[in-house]
Amino acid sequence: MRRPVPAPLGYGGIGLHCPVNPYPLAPHIQNAVIEAVRGQIAAINGYPDSNATVLRTKLAEYVSNHARIPVTPENIWVANGCNEILQQIFRAFAGPGGTALGLEPSYRYFPVIAEAVGAQWRSVPSRAFPQRDIDAALTAIERCQPDVVVIANPNNPTGDSFSMDMFEEVLARLGSGILVIDEAFIEMSTKDSAVELIHRYPDKIAICRTLSQAFTFAGGKLGYMMAAPNIINTLLATRLPYHVSSMTQAAAAVIIDRADEILAKVPELLLERDRMVTALQLAGFDIPHSDTSFFLLGKLDDAHAVWEAYANAGIFLGDVGLSHYLRVSAGLPHENDQFLEATSNLLDLGKIAIG
User: Fold this and answer.
1) Is residue 18 part of a domain?
2) Do 275 and 324 fall within a single domain?
3) Which end of the chain is more exposed for a tag (fewer CB within 10 A), N or C?
4) Is 337 helix (H, G, I), strand (E, B) or coil?
């Protein structure tokens, strides 16, 4: 993803490059977060709860209520964002000399994190973009038996999802390895979580989530994992001590307490996505189906040139390393209006060439 640069003219800096919930926290929730953090300041000379007991309990209650699957604090682990969770998983279950496997296109930091802990990364390329090649992946899993298989669901950057049956097929082919399902965007989609699988396959599956996207808490950097206690305990043995600050734990607990109110904005965001997609398809763009609040904009003759044209107009999209597509994340309604207006202007000016 390219860093947004200030634009002197145009729309003044509209960021549709990060797939987060654009609606700010309501003032009373902001105040509750402030008070919770303030309450930790008096004890800031002490270390945080290394087991994040209160936060894990609240997360277990949230997941149990929303997924209608019983989850206990012993099924939950927390860290500073999903990336730290992934790092812990790759280190504990693959590590130097181990193998991790993923499908393309997907989250660009999967291989970066795996290789950073010494694991060998194996990638299964797509044969029919933007769909990930699950048939080739199943063959590769059966052949090389990786220590970790990681799949984003919904996927980033394409927004497509796999079914529960597909994950069970992966688990059937996977011997002693572990399947990691990255559900960073599950609350921003209409698809069901795979959380029920942690009880049916207690030795073989972990599910990662974050408060960064739907929960409007990206700056708080709180990720969590759901798995059977034996997998959680393996990570506990490899964690850094006191790794999640007391202030992060307190702020995240407030966010989870108010989950229903915060997530109530997600349907509005998905309607905005639909409105944008309809207008762009009418303009001739290829927009692959997405189950979440972002989508791919294509098929562009030169994605980088189009990214620069939007940036020069003060609108920043996600350049996610795809030759003919950019990622667009639905923003606030007025931001989306300005994006669509800019798109029309850039088409009229010949700044966007659609293949």
Assistant:
1) no
2) yes
3) C
4) helix
Q: DSSP E strands: which ranges in 158-233? A: 178-182, 205-210, 223-227
At position 100, the amino acid (one-letter code) is: A
Supply the DSSP symbol for 351: -
State how far the Cα of 247 lies from the Cα of 335, in Å rounded to an integer. 32
Within 10 A of 263 (CB to CB), how many other CB atoms are there? 16
pLDDT digits (tens, 9 = 90+) for 71-129: 999 999 999 999 999 999 999 999 999 999 999 999 999 999 999 999 999 999 999 88
Question: Cα–chain-centroid distance for residue 203?
Answer: 24
Q: What is the pTM of this model?
A: 0.94
Q: What H or E segment, with its residue span, contains residue 315?
A: strand 315-316
Separate counts of helices (H) and strands (E) for the chain: 13, 11
Considering 232, 258, 284, which residue would you say is the last residue of a domain?
A: 258
End of a domain among 233, 258, 283? Answer: 258
Q: Is 98 helix (H, G, I), strand (E, B) or coil?
A: coil
Tokens of 96: 């130097």
Opening angle at CA 87, ends 84 and 91, nearest 5? 145
